[in-house]
């Protein structure tokens, strides 16, 4: 991301945070020498908690890069930059799906995944409510923190809805992990096959 926006004052992971390497060592050691933790993590409610924590971290990272892009990229066609921040935020939200760069666009060859689509949607919501709306509507009063909270809650709501659907709505499919990502991929593939048939 720093390469995309020409941000020279950024120190990549793990150079910036003193706790990064110790936490990585602790996570590896726990996974390697404490096998009972794998059983604990396999409990559905624990999985849900971890997924929600991941969504919070993903949203924080993506919005951070959107903010950096808004501050770094100069506005051209509009009063604020739009396309650049959306691209930076979306890439920051999809967990490095496009990395390393040698992969090119393989991440979207079979259609847009849930992670990319949800990240793009949240970036639109945040950019529109925090940076665009106040310029065109001076009486608009949604703060940065409030918009961040709405974005996190939206991502968490989708994961909770998915969890409830899988664990309660599909008794005959219990034990089979059917994520929103796979459902979205199947839907995109189906629409692409229909277009080819036309």
Residue stretches low in confidence (pLDDT < 50, at least 5 long) are 171-177
Q: How many individual β-strands?
A: 0
The proportion of residues forming helix, as a percent range, comes to 55-70%
Average pLDDT, rounded to a whole number, is 78
**Net shape:** globular
Distance between the termini: 39 Å
Largest sheet: none
Give me the number of helical elements.
8
How do the helices and strands follow one another from N- to C-terminus?
HHHHHHHH
How many structural domains are formed by the residues? 1
Structural class: mainly alpha
- What amount of the residues lies in strands? under 5%
Radius of gyration: 19 Å
Detailed description of the structure:
The protein has 198 residues and is mainly alpha-helical. The chain has one domain. It is 66% helix and 0% strand. The chain contains eight helices and no strands. It has helices at residues 2-5, 20-33, 36-41, 44-72, 83-93, 114-136, 144-169, 180-197. Helix 4 packs antiparallel against helix 7 (144-169) and helix 5 (83-93) packs antiparallel against helix 6 (114-136). Residues 171-177 have low confidence and may be disordered.
């Amino acid at each position: 991301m720093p390469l995309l926006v020409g941000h020279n004052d950024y120190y990549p992971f793990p150079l910036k945070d003193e706790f990064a390497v110790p936490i990585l060592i602790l996570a590896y050691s726990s996974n390697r020498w404490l096998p009972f933790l794998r059983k604990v993590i396999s409990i559905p409610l624990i999985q849900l908690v971890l997924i929600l924590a991941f969504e919070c971290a993903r949203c924080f990272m993506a919005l951070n890069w959107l903010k950096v892009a808004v501050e770094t990229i100069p506005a051209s066609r509009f009063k604020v930059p739009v396309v650049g921040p959306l691209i930076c935020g979306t890439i920051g939200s999809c967990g490095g799906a496009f990395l390393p760069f040698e992969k090119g666009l393989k991440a979207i060859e079979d259609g847009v995944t849930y992670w990319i689509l949800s990240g793009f949607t949240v970036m639109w919501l945040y950019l529109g409510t925090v940076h665009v709306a106040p310029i065109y509507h001076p009486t608009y009063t949604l703060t940065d923190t409030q918009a961040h909270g709405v974005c996190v809650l939206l991502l968490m709501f989708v994961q909770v809805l998915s969890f409830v659907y899988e664990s309660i709505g599909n008794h005959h499919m219990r034990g089979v992990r059917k994520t929103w990502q796979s459902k979205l991929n199947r839907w995109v593939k189906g629409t692409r096959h229909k277009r080819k048939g036309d």
